[in-house]
């Protein structure tokens, strides 16, 4: 998710490097004396994600002597999206940008993004066939493609393979047995609890974190085959699926299998320290677990509702064309080439835990050899993005509102029924405000 800072690639450092690249670009020439063109690329990728993106972009830049790709790294979340919108509204935006797929509905319909030309993309080997169905379907707004997915990142289960092996839980392939019900999930957590002698066997950090609550809920809710309708005057949802999903979350954090009050950092630390055998979290946590030399396995979150529907909350970093009133066609063509080169060189993006979206990369032996990445890579084929609306998506207030309502049910301060009703009213307010704007 690229949310956590890392001193090895600070915003200041990237901007300094980008500035030097710009200076060199202004003084240099391409082959046969041809002047280089500067492609300005805005993104919000820092820490390990930022380092990997810098490596990929540097390689693409080296393969494009007629261009220089200038990276501009902005603060994650609302600050980034506000600046991106303002630049596009003025028609003087960067040549390329990164946006989460879940934010597309708030940008494309209002003319803040320019659509991708499919014929141009095809010349560079990029087409519908090179992406998964969810990534392509969700990139389309009003019949046009506005986003090209770099990856998919899902909510999954990580587990400690050493602890699982000692408990006799692994099959011959080193995987946990299929989990088909909430009782089986709780029994698994109990087995880890017995082995470690600690208070809990499973970790889920959610306290004060609406995004974490939303990710697990949307996984469970989507596994019911349910969705939200945010297109009308009032919020429409499946009340039974909503309640059962929240009840399941509350049953997991019951104070027996998992803590009733774990924060995100606490849950990650408990897993890193071997205090618990399982943790529910996003795939972007993979690098820190691997850096700690953990004996690590992973699997998609199973369907425990008997519906047989594979579903997982997820999102994608995507490439977008922020609106330009008078785009320079030579630079825009170079932007197409740059994106195609980055997509084709995105194998290393898998080391960040993300599953590359470009299928020719996913289908290589090199990616298939990555573990435990390949054990959850299938989630990309059934990823469920946030319900589209101008107020939903990564870093949005929608997730905060969800957490404010639903957390109270998980910690026993209100009933599930009242928590769901409270959230529904909050969404109705967001919908009415969106209509007024």
TrEMBL record:
It comes from the Bacteria. It holds the Pfam family SBP_bac_8. Gene3D superfamilies: Periplasmic binding protein-like II. InterPro entries: Bact_solute-bd_prot1 (IPR050490), SBP (IPR006059), TAT_signal (IPR006311). PROSITE patterns: PROKAR_LIPOPROTEIN (PS51257), TAT (PS51318). PANTHER family: ARABINOSE-BINDING PROTEIN-RELATED, BLR3389 PROTEIN. This is Extracellular solute-binding protein.
